[in-house]
Specification:
There is one protein chain. The protein is α/β, with parallel strands linked by helices and about 240 residues long. The chain has one domain: 3-Layer(aba) Sandwich (Rossmann fold), CATH 3.40.50. The chain contains nine helices and ten strands. Strands 1-10-7-4-2-3 form a six-stranded parallel beta sheet, sandwiched between helices. It has a four-stranded mixed beta sheet with strand order 8-5-6-9, sandwiched between helices. The longest helix has 23 residues. It is globular, with a radius of gyration of 18 Å.
């Protein structure tokens, strides 16, 4: 009997086809890209790209947590993992603000920088929007290798759709995440966190301040950025 309530096979096909198109476009732009069907395979792909003994740091990313690479790095003795986002069990930062910011700056000298991205376009562009800019800055320049992991749910048609997705979907939910899980009440007061939609605010704690569109990698550092697209819904 056909189970009309299960569209897992259809979604797997949809994500894979879109991811393959995005991967081909990314590779044409001197960005190493690959598609993997699952978060378990994403973890293996990421670990394979990190040299033993490497200094590794990361940007804030739910996706990285979901594929298990953060816990893997914490437990492993093969790498020097500097985590500015390490938290206690109740969600508080382990480090105070200034030590965290110092670690953000030191990320420029890391061997490997791990991060997510807010959107990947079908024609091979990475679109990310930050509050502080530490994530996008290290992605652009500094670390010898950058590894970007994104769920296929973040694949969009173009840059316009990517930016709209961030403002209308990722930002409101992310603001709520920081308010509910990480004790940052200031983010809960953002208009998008209250209404669930962007009103193009000018709030002092606005998290959509720095927009970066990566259209490729310069020839001298071809392949510095590595993208793993995963055939699952991951992150925001």
């Amino acid at each position: 009997m056909v189970d009309e309530t299960d569209v897992g096979q259809e979604m797997k096909w949809f994500y894979e086809e879109r991811a393959k198109a995005a991967v081909a476009s990314l590779n044409r732009r001197n960005i190493n890209a690959q598609y993997v069907p699952s978060r378990q395979e994403a973890l293996s792909a990421v670990i394979e790209m990190i040299p033993e003994g490497a200094t590794v740091t990361r940007g804030d990313s739910i996706t990285l947590e979901q594929i298990g690479v953060i816990e893997e790095l914490r437990q492993s003795k093969q790498y020097k993992f500097n985590d500015p986002f390490a938290r206690t069990e109740d969600g508080h930062f382990v480090l105070d603000r200034e030590p965290r910011f110092k670690m953000h700056r030191e990320a420029f000298f890391a061997d490997v920088f791990l991060t997510g991205t807010n959107a990947v376009t079908l024609d091979g562009k990475l679109v990310s929007i930050d509050a502080l800019g530490n994530r996008v800055a290290a992605t652009i320049f500094g670390p010898e290798k950058v590894i970007v992991v994104a769920g296929a749910n973040k694949i969009v048609n173009d840059v316009t759709e990517a930016i709209e997705r961030v403002h209308q979907v990722a930002a409101p939910i992310n603001a709520q995440r920081h308010a509910l899980k990480h004790h940052h009440s200031e983010f809960g007061n953002l208009p998008c966190a209250k209404t669930g939609r962007c009103v193009n605010c000018n709030h002092e704690f606005k998290i959509c301040l720095i927009t970066v569109i990566i259209e490729g990698t310069f020839a001298w550092v071809k392949g510095r950025i590595n993208v793993v697209l995963v055939g699952e819904e991951l992150g925001l």
